[in-house]
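Amino acids appear as letters; backbone shape is given numerically. Here is one record.
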Amino acid sequence: MAAWIPLILVALVVVWLVGIYNRLVSLRNRFRNAFSQIDVQLKRRYDLIPNLVETVKGYMKHERETLEAVIAARNQARSVEERAASAPGDPTAMRELAAAEQVLTGSLGRMFALAEAYPDLKASANMQQLQEELSSTENRVAFARQAYNDSVMQYNTYRESFPQNQIAGVFVFKVAEPFHIEVEVQREAPKVSF
């Protein structure tokens, strides 16, 4: 009977370790899924931008540099977003994505500021619809970003607690990076009303 006690203790420890490992996997999958929601909304945003630029282009013929900056920023953000989507939570990828989104938002803001000088553009039904869709998408990105950051916080908190941090180290569960916007200007969705 006494010989069974060490075996039972070893079995309990193994079950406990498996439980911690499975919880880490579950939390990691949760934040990866939350990032996929950001991914969907950012792709929607990126798909809207060419239509917006085409609509604006007809009215703002002399603002070619601004329109090209918007397209370049959109292409850069899309490229960085694809890299981040392949490794959600990776600190470098998330920081690069935040920086690219900052540049894109700034470019869009400059384009909308210039568009204020074109009354026909402001009155365009197509422009109003695109602005409404972009604003809605920006709100969805903000909600998805919050859900992602909440999931990352839960994962990181669990991962960094003892004894989980020991098990996470053995199985290479890395700290996940939240998707923070560093610049105050970008903490708000771009204003797209005319």
